[in-house]
């Protein structure tokens, strides 16, 4: 085993002796020019001794010990000497400063010894001078303290150069100076008496503090006693008051109102006297239990729609003692925002006694009244809602609106038939009344989610669906849909989308099927019917409507007139000017309409150019919309003579006529005739569905043959029986 190079006694940081055997590292360093005792590097500016590592004690933090080693200090001193500077060791400087401070402190203490009381030595640095109080000082700080004269007579004054018996308490607390002699028997007695006096003073202070505490505690007990007496008296009066307003249910009808007024007056006084202790004493339960019998008797003979404000004023005065909620309704866009209150009500786990009484006694009466209520008679029920709303718990009001009122209004909306009827019908009053007349009064009483047209199950969404259905089948020749403009404010942007998607196609179809251009006998009624809706649609929409369904016919007729042999350009020019006056100015001045007028003028100019060139006007190219249909009467006769007539089979004509009769009957009975786009497998006749559902589902499948309606049997697909237009078909259509 190889032995490590020997090291001298100076430690591992010293270079090995030159006479010893050199290690491999020393040999390599010697080859590179290293000499012992000199620093590393070409000029010897590096370190001389190897770097030492000083371990910090376990658990010690940074800075807790001086981590600079002797090797580091020697290297720093050697480098400073090479630079011509003096090396300063901060630790040595600090030790010198501490030594100087101790010397100055000792010199100062010796010099100030003569100034200390009693010739004592002043305390050194860091020691606080102890001050003693005399017995007189203690007596002055504690008024009422009397030191027993017997104690004073036996106390020796040992503070001066000679000892004497004390005749007063002055100086009793000042200890004697050190005389350099051992304490005698008298000194021991004096010390013992001084300690007894100090204990006596401390006991006296403790007794004084205890006396003050007992006086304060006694005062508090006296106050509590008075308060307890007042509480007992108050509770006695409370018990008497509660016993007084408990009235039995066996009350005559003649005395019922008088007993109710008496009870309300007692409850009002009880509420006034115990307004701040209602919850503390549980007066809510007591008040409701006392009111319950008479409240039930009053509601038994109550007609809500005849007396909508019954008992509301009395209950409003007793809101505090009955424990009613004081939540205020916020108003948003003119309507009460009840959503937050509904959410808060759903979080409530139990009902109060008042809420239970309203739910079990009052709500059933309203449920019966609303079930038998006609939506056209809005005033009594809206008055009831307005009067009772501040008195109703939120969940009960929510039940009224969502479960009773809104379904009633939605059902009435589904029966609405906007078409005019000249004869009497059993549901004519409700069917043909405009929905806004009986729905708008309820808007302030409905929560905001019922007034959101985008919500799937809201009341306003039902209105939108009904308007959409009515507009899809509306006859433009019947005029403006009654009450349509009333819904603009509520439907907002949905209103314009509704008209564009469902009214505009009806206007275009009306122009396409009913309006013809006839210079010899022009009928403007279909066009006037379309322009009657001008205030409901924007000018741009009407301009596009005319470009699509009016001007193709107009340009085709103009082309046909220009190419006829007896065309008069003067009449044609007057005809052009006349037509420009028939279109409302805002629409006529639109750029799209102006472009169509320009096309007409260019066509006339092109025809005149052909005549001036001696060419046949028949060569005039037709408009881009295609050749015109022969619309004028004489042109229609010529076209009819030129082609063979197309006749409809008599059976098909009769079926088409009877289908119109069935369609009208369905409309009278609030039913819908929906084509299924399917054919009967045996006869090949088209199938229809007669249903009372607004969605077009359910009902009964039928087909029409001649003047007979054949209905499919229940549960037997493909088997049809004849059925009349009577109540049995209505029942089948309603799913009964």
Could you describe the 3D structure shown?
It is a single chain. This protein has 736 residues and is mainly alpha-helical. Among the domains are: 135-218, no CATH class; 246-451, no CATH class; 515-642, no CATH class; 650-733, no CATH class. It is built from 29 helices and 9 strands. The chain has helices spanning 24-31, 70-82, 90-111, 135-141, 149-153, 185-245, 253-273, 278-281, 283-300, 312-317, 319-322, 339-347, 353-371, 378-388, 394-414, 428-431, 435-439, 459-472, 488-491, 493-514, 525-531, 539-549, 551-562, 569-582, 585-588, 591-612, 633-642, 650-668, 727-733; strands spanning 156-157, 164-165, 330-332, 335-337, 672-679, 686-691, 700-705, 708-712, 720-723. Strands 5-6-7-8-9 form a 5-stranded antiparallel β-sheet, with helices on one face. The protein has a two-stranded antiparallel sheet with strand order 1-2. A two-stranded antiparallel sheet has the order 3-4. Helix 9 (283-300) packs parallel to helix 13 (353-371). The longest helix has 61 residues, at 185-245. The two termini are 114 Å apart.
């Amino acid at each position: 085993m190889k032995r490590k190079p020997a090291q001298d006694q100076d430690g591992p940081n010293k270079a090995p002796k030159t006479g010893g055997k050199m290690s491999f590292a020393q040999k390599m360093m010697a080859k590179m020019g290293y000499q012992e005792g000199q620093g590393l590097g070409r000029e010897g500016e590096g370190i001389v001794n190897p770097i030492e590592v000083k371990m910090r004690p376990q658990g010690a933090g940074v800075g807790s010990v001086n981590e600079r080693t002797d090797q580091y200090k020697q290297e720093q001193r050697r480098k400073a000497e090479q630079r011509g500077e003096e090396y300063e060791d901060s630790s040595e400087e600090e030790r010198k400063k501490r030594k100087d401070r101790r010397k100055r402190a000792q010199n100062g203490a010796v010099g100030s010894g003569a100034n200390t009381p009693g010739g004592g030595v002043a305390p050194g640095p860091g020691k606080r001078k102890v001050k003693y109080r005399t017995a007189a000082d203690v007596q002055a700080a504690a008024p009422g303290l009397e030191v027993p004269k017997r104690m004073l007579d036996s106390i020796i004054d040992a503070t001066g150069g000679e000892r004497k018996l004390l005749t007063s308490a002055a100086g009793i607390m000042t200890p004697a100076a050190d005389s350099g002699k051992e304490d005698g028997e008298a000194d021991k007695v004096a010390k013992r008496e001084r300690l007894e006096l100090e204990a006596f003073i401390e006991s006296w202070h403790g007794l004084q503090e205890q006396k003050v505490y007992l006086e304060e505690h006694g005062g508090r007990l006296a106050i509590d006693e008075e308060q307890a007496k007042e509480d007992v008296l108050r509770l006695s009066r409370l018990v008497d008051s509660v016993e007084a307003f408990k009235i039995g249910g066996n009350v005559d009808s003649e005395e019922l109102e008088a007993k109710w007024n008496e009870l309300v007056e007692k409850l009002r006084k009880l509420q006034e006297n115990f307004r701040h202790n209602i919850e503390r004493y549980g007066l809510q339960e007591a008040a409701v239990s006392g009111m319950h019998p008479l409240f039930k008797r009053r509601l038994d003979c109550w007609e809500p729609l005849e007396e909508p404000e019954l008992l509301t004023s009395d209950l409003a005065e007793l809101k505090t003692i009955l424990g009613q909620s004081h939540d205020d309704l916020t108003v948003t866009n003119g309507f009460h925002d009840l959503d937050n209150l509904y959410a808060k009500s759903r979080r409530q786990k139990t009902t109060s006694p008042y809420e239970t009484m309203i739910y079990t006694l009052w709500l059933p009466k309203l449920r019966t009244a609303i079930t038998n209520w006609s939506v056209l008679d809005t005033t009594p029920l809206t008055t009831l809602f307005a009067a009772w709303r501040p008195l109703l718990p939120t969940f009960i009001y929510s039940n009224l609106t969502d479960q009773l009122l809104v379904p009633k209004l939605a059902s009435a909306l589904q029966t609405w038939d906007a078409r005019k009827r000249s004869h009497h019908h059993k549901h004519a009053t409700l069917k043909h009344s405009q929905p806004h007349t009986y729905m708008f009064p309820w808007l302030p009483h409905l929560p905001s989610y019922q007034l959101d047209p985008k919500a799937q199950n809201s009341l306003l969404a039902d209105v939108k669906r009904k308007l959409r259905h009515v507009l899809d089948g509306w006859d433009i020749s019947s005029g403006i849909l009654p009450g349509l403009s009333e819904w603009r404010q509520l439907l907002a942007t949905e209103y314009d989308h509704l008209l564009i998607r469902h009214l505009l196609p009806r206007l275009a179809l009306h122009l396409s099927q009913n309006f013809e251009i006839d210079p010899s006998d022009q009928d403007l009624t279909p066009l006037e019917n379309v322009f009657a809706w001008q205030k409901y649609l924007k000018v741009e929409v009407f301009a596009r409507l005319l470009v699509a369904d009016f001007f193709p016919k107009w340009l085709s007729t103009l082309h046909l007139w220009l190419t006829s042999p007896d065309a008069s350009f003067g009449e044609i020019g007057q005809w052009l000017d006349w037509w420009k006056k028939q279109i409302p100015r805002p629409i006529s001045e639109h750029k799209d309409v102006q472009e169509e007028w320009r096309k007409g003028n260019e066509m006339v100019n092109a025809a005149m150019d052909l005549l001036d060139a001696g060419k046949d006007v028949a060569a005039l190219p037709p408009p881009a919309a295609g050749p015109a249909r022969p619309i004028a009467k004489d042109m229609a006769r010529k076209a009819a003579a030129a082609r063979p007539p197309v006749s409809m089979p008599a059976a098909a004509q009769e079926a088409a006529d009877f289908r119109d009769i069935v369609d009208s009957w369905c409309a009278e009975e609030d039913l819908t005739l929906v084509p299924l786009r399917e054919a009967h497998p045996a006869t090949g006749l088209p199938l229809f569905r007669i249903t009372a559902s607004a969605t077009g589902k359910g009902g009964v499948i039928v087909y029409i043959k001649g003047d007979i309606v054949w209905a499919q049997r229940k549960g037997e697909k493909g088997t049809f029986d004849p059925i009349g237009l009577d109540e049995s078909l209505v029942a089948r259509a309603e799913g009964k």
